[in-house]
Design goal:
The chain is of the alpha/beta class and 384 residues long. The protein has two domains: 239 residues, 3-Layer(aba) Sandwich (Aspartate Aminotransferase, domain 2); 102 residues, Alpha-Beta Complex (Aspartate Aminotransferase, domain 1), CATH 3.90.1150.10. The protein is 35% helix and 16% strand. A seven-stranded mixed β-sheet has the order 2-10-9-8-5-3-4, with helices on both faces. It has a three-stranded antiparallel β-sheet with strand order 11-12-14. A hairpin with a 4-residue loop joins strand 6 and strand 7. Helix 2 crosses helix 7.
């Protein structure tokens, strides 16, 4: 959300290399400037066709080519192995809350879906699966400890493995600002499902540990409208054919994500982002950049003598969303307004937590993180 600039604007103004403000929004969020420039061109005239990408038919040769190119680019950027299919669906990551169990539970009467509840979003996944009639169990719940940390394997209490349909985790916890940096141990043979909405392709994934990875594309790999699903081949055909056709992974896989009009502009932005990720050196190089770039912000928190209180336990700190509070809501409001006026925009915390949240996804530049750290120190000096 954008905080309105005030008369009390901070003296220093920060801008990106292209002269824009630093956009810390949690999603939809920042895109690389070179990607935005390409989009500007393609909205007017896509690849010499004489009209723009927004106006192209999803059944025309231009889109056939673009779709094939997108699957290739995503596979390359994300290092997706050959035994996984890439699907684009709609309905956001939230719709996967029921689409996943509809596809992976083969017997509703006996099977259980286990969840590692580390954030508001995993809590929503449990509620939505329950509401759709599935039996759920939280193998871990961080709710009582206000979602401040990522559990150890010893803290995970799974259901009887013979009844387990899948285990679901959320790899980055967008609202509270914690992140998994290891793959949780799950009972042998049980598919691990990962909601990677806010860290997909921000670091390497060991696919051998996962059955299905999904996420909205609007944070790290494009814009809103498409949900990416990366699914192991043996899980595609698992669901009963009585499941509505548009909700079956089988349909999406068979029809190459085009059983109806797909979110073609969103898919196009994913194509550009995937190529951009490869150009950056791929996910391993991005992981290093993402880790390094947030260090100055965490340092500003740690060196503030408690003026800024980080939400996450230091061992669980996210590279994607940095969440912290100040001494009062009035002070937080002042911080957000002055930061926006200084060119550091979109940091209002989620309604569930309040406070400040700086989102620093793949496209977010290191200069913006350094600028925020500088602003934080100056704000403390003036208001501490
Ligand atoms: C981890 C996570 N899961 C799910 C969602 C919901 O995504 P969507 O709006 O695409 O349904 C979000 C949105 O921020 C998220 O961060």
């Amino acid at each position: 959300m954008t905080a309105a600039p005030t008369a009390a604007a901070a003296s220093k103004s920060f801008r990106t290399a292209g002269g824009r403000v630093f956009n810390f929004n949690a999603g939809p969020s920042i895109l690389p400037e070179e990607v935005i420039k390409q989009i500007q061109e393609d909205i007017w005239n896509f690849r010499g066709s004489g009209y723009g990408i927004l106006e192209h038919s999803h059944r025309a040769k231009f889109f056939d080519d673009l779709l094939a190119e997108t699957f290739d680019a995503v596979r390359k950027a994300g290092e997706v192995p050959a035994n996984f299919k890439i699907l684009f669906m709609t309905g956001g990551a939230t719709s996967q809350n029921y689409i996943v169990p509809m596809n992976l539970v083969t017997d509703r009467n006996t099977q259980v879906c286990d969840y590692l509840d580390t954030d508001y979003w995993s809590g929503r996944s449990i509620e939505d699966a329950k509401q759709a009639g599935f039996t759920t169990h939280a193998a871990f719940s961080g709710k009582d400890s206000k979602y401040t940390y990522i559990p150890t394997d010893a803290e995970l209490k799974y259901s009887d493995p013979s009844k387990l349909a899948f285990v679901h985790m959320t790899s980055n916890n967008t609202i509270y600002g914690t992140e998994w940096f290891r793959d949780p141990a799950v009972p042998a043979g049980v598919p691990l499902v990962c909601d990677a909405s806010s860290d997909i392709f921000s670091k390497p994934i060991d696919y051998s540990k996962y059955g299905l990875i999904y996420g909205g594309c609007q944070k790290n790999i494009g814009t809103t409208g498409a949900t990416i699903v990366i699914i192991r081949d043996d899980l595609i055909e698992r669901c009963d054919k009585s499941v509505p056709r548009m909700l079956q992974y089988r349909t999406m896989a068979k029809e190459e994500s085009r059983p109806n009009t797909p979110p073609h502009f969103a898919i196009y932005t994913v194509c550009l982002m995937a190529k951009w990720i490869t150009k950056q050196g791929g996910v391993a190089a991005l992981a290093q950049k993402n880790k390094d770039k947030v260090a100055p912000i965490y340092k500003a928190i740690d060196e503030s003598n408690g003026y800024y209180k980080g939400h996450s336990r230091p061992d669980s700190r996210s590279w994607m969303n940095i969440t912290f509070r100040l001494g009062s809501e009035a002070l937080e409001d002042k911080f957000l307004k002055e930061a926006a006026a200084a060119g550091l925009d979109g940091m209002k915390g989620h309604r569930a937590t309040g406070g400040v949240r700086a989102s620093t996804y793949n496209a977010f530049p290191a200069e913006g993180c350094r600028a925020l750290a500088e602003f934080m120190r100056e704000f403390q000096r003036k208001n501490g």
